[in-house]
Amino acid sequence: MALKQVQTTCPYCGAGCQIMFTVDADANKIVEAVPAPGRTNDGTLCLKGHYGWDYLNDPQILTKRLRKPMIRKGGKRSPLEEVSWEEAISYVAKKLSEIKEKYGPDSIMGTGSARGAGNEANYLMQKFMRATIGTNNVDHCARI
Amino acid sequence: MSMGIPEVEDAGCLLCFGYNGADSHPIVARRIVRGRQKGMKIICVDPRVTETARISDIHLQLKGGSNLALVNAMAHVIWEEGLTDDRFIQEHTKGYDEFLKVIEKYTPEYAEPITHIPADMIRQAARMYATTKPAMILYGMGVCQFSQAVDVVKGLANLALMTGNFGGPSMGIGPVRGQNNVQGACDMGALPNSYPGYQNVTVPEIREKFEKAWGVPLSDKVGCPITHVPHRILHEKDEKKRIHAYYIFGEDPAQSDPDLAEVREALDKCDFVVMQDIYMNKTGLYADVILPATAWGENEGVYTCADRGFQRFRKLIEPEGDLKPDWQIIAEISTAMGYPMNYKNTEEIWNEMIDLCPSFAGATYEKLEKYNGVQWPCRDKSMEDKGTPYLHKGGNFATADKKALFYGTDWHPPLEMENDEYPMSLSTVREVGHYSVRTMTGNCRMLRSLEDEPGWVQMNPDDCKRLNLEKGELVKILSKRGYCITRCLPTERVKPGATYMTYQWWIGACNELTLANLDPISNTPEYKYCACRVEKIEDQEWAERHVKELYDDIRVQMGIDTGKGAAS
Amino acid sequence: MNYFVKGNPDLCIGCRTCMIGCVVVHEGKHIFEVDPDSYNFNPRLHMVKTAKISVPVQCKHCENPACMAACPVQAIYQEDHRVLINTDKCIGCKACATACPFGAIDIVSLAGTRQADGSERKVANKCDLCNNIAGGPACVRVCPTQALSLVTEEDLGGAMEKKRMEAARNAYMEIHPQNGG
Predict the structure, then answer these.
(1) Does the N terminus or the C terminus of chain A have fewer Cβ atoms within 10 A?
(2) What is the CA radius of gyration of chain C?
(3) pLDDT at residue A143 greater than cutoff 50
């Protein structure tokens, strides 16, 4: 069992706590989380920081991890069908291009994500909406 | 936040306004507790007895929806009793005289019947805040999720300006942001009116800078706020303005937004809905395309915490399945649409971003690694610039003349008041062990075991007695917009007539009840106030069975094989 | 003397990290990998919240335990500065839970243990001060506000001595208020 230590930032509230994870690299599993001496958390963690990581193993308690791109080929209410990434990406690109062509860029809305995705993904999302689509219709759930 | 989280414990006085740190940020609450141990004075403004209220010197248990009346009355006392920092006002602010005209009528006696707080208590609180230095204000969703949110935030800033509580450590005002990277999503310009780094889309010079960097013309019109989307899908007459496509990235509007029935109708009617997420959720039921992304722990990048701290998050394990990082999915769609985005890693994206944002320009990955994070503003790439622990140093504000502006507004009541049919008030609050829409924490064994569906409605024991309700009993709670089932939790921490529900539950989904009224400036919904009614369910056995069936149905809908028929 | 864990309501923020810490340390780390419906969630301390107080309550490891006296099958015993329950001997009669003046004992199901009629075995459950677990009581270790502490003979002795000093100073001050102790 090859154990390694990785320090990262907690994915929950905005306190920005630093957590030291012990990871079993062979089994590709997290073994334990302990507080790290971060600037804001000073070697302490709450219950979510300590015990809020086993969702990564997909225990299927409330919902199921998404594992494959899916499309409803028969429109709304039709079943989701698994597709390849190539198909999913080109389908989204085609539909968005069509709608932009027909109704203009302000008929498309995009969201950023205040959660796990991180700053780089948010930067790209707003750049996508502004530069690729051509609208400032981008927002996220700060208001919610 | 204008201050850093570690500074909280060194304030002389903390005005904790509509902020329940113990449930939303236990590790910030820890700083409040430590401050208390060091002798910090605490004024807690909250309609409930929160953990902070419990250890406070003064607890102003105000009537929900009266925030601005209280804030203006505190300002009135500080002015009337001459507790102002006149030199600070003169040297660093503008608009004081106009502001005084607004607050003149807000005597504590005027505010008493609105706030339900005795006038003398308002006086004591104002004196304590104004005379104990340094004084810090922390506020939370108890301020922001009202239709007068921005006015109250400005009102709190007025208090800090009047008393000269800006420009040094352990002072100022701090919105303690809820989600881990809500600060970051704002920093990165996931906002309809600003590019990354809070640069306004309507300023021509700024737009030109981004047009040059990105090589395309950009729109000069402010975009659509997320809370307007249902209306813009369902009721917009102009085809060019109607939302026909909705690309939802890491959010679940069908659970988190107010007035869920309207949201569901909107998602159903929208021509093309793309969902990019890590878990199946309620929004996914309406999505035309689902794009599976890697989760926290499976990818890397930078988050911004509530006190402007950029910090790295790192990969812990390899993702299983056919997943891509969010940034890569977006880049591939863009490229397929004819606007190529080619990045090798998150650092390349980060470097492009910081070069466009003067406030972030110095926050290189190298520094984030070396210093374990950097608080912005960090303008210089040299290793000496380690960022900025607190803002407005020396009383210099981020305005053209470096002066802050007083801004006074009048109080108005919440939009929906209690009435004969719906005699109680409902406010949404947070469950400490659960996060957001619960797709993450609801799938964590221990957090689920501590608290699970259908959640609780907190009520005063007198109200419970009147309705003949016991602890743990399932009850029906209704508003004009819908109803849900949850468990009764009698507690003396809430006042008679008020109810509180945590918004994490899918069965006890309080957003079936909430109102989509918005603050006219911030467009934040009024989650903290609507009218409701609680009803006893006579057949508890049926109710327990019903809740269990609802839970099973949700799990099946979410694609879990529950052993009762095929998963959809 | 028996040791015990003491909670400080001035520091507690009611977050219940302690309750999960307790379950995880007693069930073992595999709890994060097992079937989510197969483990026990039986914290040995409980958060109590009133209008004025938030603090977890757990076994005080009394010197003359009422639970031990009440147990008809001698399943409760004292060892290594603590009061312990032998769950193999326990018949689930609830005498200890009734006798305990602090509500510190629960009767809980033991997952995976069956009796002759197929029902799950139920036994008394309470704080064991993390017996045989390195690092001492988990609740103390995981609490983010240091609201819990393990009180040993030494701590108690030290605290008593401090209080006696204080009492002596007060006695002196009553007679010589001008000397300032």
Answers:
(1) N
(2) 20
(3) no
d(CA A40, CA C144): 12
CB contact under 8 A, A67 and B292: yes
Predicted pLDDT at B328: 97
**Range with the lowest mean pLDDT among A5-9, B511-515, C71-75, C134-138?**
B511-515
Which domain does C115 fall in, by range? 59-126
The third-level CATH classification (topology) of the domain covering B182-380 is: Rossmann fold (3.40.50)
The residues of chain B that CATH labels 2.40.40.20 are: 424-557
Indicate yes or no: CB of C36 within 8 angstroms of CB of A45. Answer: no
- Alpha-carbon distance of A72 to B136, in angstroms, equals 52
CATH 3.40.50.740 in chain B is located at: 182-380
Asked whether this complex has an ipTM greater than 0.90, the answer is: yes
Asked whether residue B449 carries a pLDDT value surpassing 70, the answer given is yes
The total of structural domains in chain C comes to: 2
Distance, in angstroms, between B194 CA and closest chain A CA?
8
Q: Which residues contact B466 (CB under 8 A, 6 or more apart)?
A: none
- pLDDT (average), residues B286-291: 96
**B132 has pLDDT over 90:** yes
C19 inside 8 A of chain B by CB: yes
| Pairing label, strands B309-313, B374-375 | antiparallel
- Over residues B224-230, mean pLDDT: 91
Tell me the CATH number of domain B424-557, given options 1.10.150.320, 2.40.40.20, 3.40.1190.10, 2.60.200.30: 2.40.40.20
Distance from CA of A3 to the nearest CA of B (A): 11
Model confidence band, residue A114 (pLDDT cutoffs 50, 70, 90): confident
Residue of A28, C25, A19 whose CA lies nearest to B446: C25
Predicted local confidence at residue B522, as pLDDT: 61
Which pLDDT score, from 0 to 100, does residue B278 have?
Answer: 93
A57 interfaces chain C, CB cutoff of 8 Å: yes
Cβ separation of C17 and A59 shorter than 8 Å? no
Task: Name the phi and psi angles at B15, rounded to 5.
Answer: -100, 105
Widest CA span of chain A, in angstroms? 57
- Tell me, yes or no, if A101 comes closer than 8 A to chain B by beta carbon: no
Q: Which site among C41, C145, C146 would you substitute to test the B interface, given the most B Cβ atoms closer than 10 Å to its Cβ?
A: C145
User: Do C27 and C73 sit in the same domain of this protein?
Assistant: no
Of A83-87, B148-152, B278-282, which gets the smallest average pLDDT?
Answer: B148-152
Burial class from Cβ neighbours inside 10 Å (0-12, 13-18, 19+) for residue B67 reads: buried
Strands B93-94 and B404-405: parallel
Taking alpha carbons only, the member of B485, B534, B482, B535 closest to residue B513 is B482
Task: Identify the band that residue B340 occupies on the pLDDT scale cut at 50, 70 and 90.
Answer: very high
Given the DSSP bridges, would you call strands B135-139 and B172-175 parallel, antiparallel or unpaired? parallel
- pLDDT band at residue B458 under the 50/70/90 scheme: very high
CA nearest A17 in C: which residue? C144
Which secondary structure element, helix H or strand E, spans residue A18, and what is its range? strand A18-24
User: What is the spatial distance between Cα B140 and Cα B174, in angstroms, rounded to a whole number?
Assistant: 8
Q: How far apart are CA B296 and CA B315, in angstroms?
A: 8
Q: Identify the structural domains of chain A with CATH numbers, from first to last.
A: 3-57 (2.20.25.90), 70-143 (no CATH)
> Is C26 in the same domain as C85?
no
pLDDT on residue B517: 64
Q: Express each pLDDT in B361-397 by its tens digit.
A: 999 999 999 999 999 999 999 999 999 998 888 888 8
pLDDT over 80 at B150, yes or no: yes
